[in-house]
Q: What sequence folds into this?
């Protein structure tokens, strides 16, 4: 069966593009998101760390502003990872991971890499999840505000949007 599939793909080379469908947050977008986050944090008088990961959760760009807490960078990276891995803002997990709730303990999964407080935003371009942005260094609600402002400034969304083409 596998050989037949390979043969059909080779025979219909023009249709191969239908088999490969992936959009990713590239370096230019990641740098622009980090700059937008830095600008918003500066406007608010905050010192933060910002990290952008691609759709596979791999780090593309990260920066720690002067004066940001040392722990801000690893938290920003893990917030970005959590947002893309789960396809939801990290704030969505805050109440659901408390004792007695349905997702209690989720934040200890993957060696504690999943973050269950605000500041991580998935990056959607239309209906495609292309990466994640994580902000850390201020109060969780401030981290989220900075992330949301950066995402909005670049015309992305933190939630899945229906594809107008289909």
A:
């Amino acid at each position: 069966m596998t050989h037949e599939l390979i043969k059909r793909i080779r025979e219909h080379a023009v249709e191969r593009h239908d088999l490969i469908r992936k959009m990713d947050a590239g370096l230019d977008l990641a740098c622009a998101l980090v700059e937008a986050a830095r600008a918003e944090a500066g406007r608010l008088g905050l010192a933060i760390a910002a990290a952008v990961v691609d759709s596979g959760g791999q780090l593309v760009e990260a920066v720690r502003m002067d004066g940001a807490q040392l722990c801000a960078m690893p938290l920003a990276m893990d917030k970005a990872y959590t947002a893309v891995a789960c396809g939801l803002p990290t704030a969505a997990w805050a109440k659901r991971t408390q004792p007695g709730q349905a997702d209690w303990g989720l934040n200890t999964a993957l060696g504690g890499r999943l973050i269950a407080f605000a500041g991580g935003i998935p990056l959607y371009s239309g209906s495609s999840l292309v990466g994640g942005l994580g902000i850390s260094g201020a109060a969780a609600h401030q981290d989220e505000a900075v992330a949301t402002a950066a995402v909005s400034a670049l015309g992305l969304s933190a939630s899945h949007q229906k594809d107008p083409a289909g």
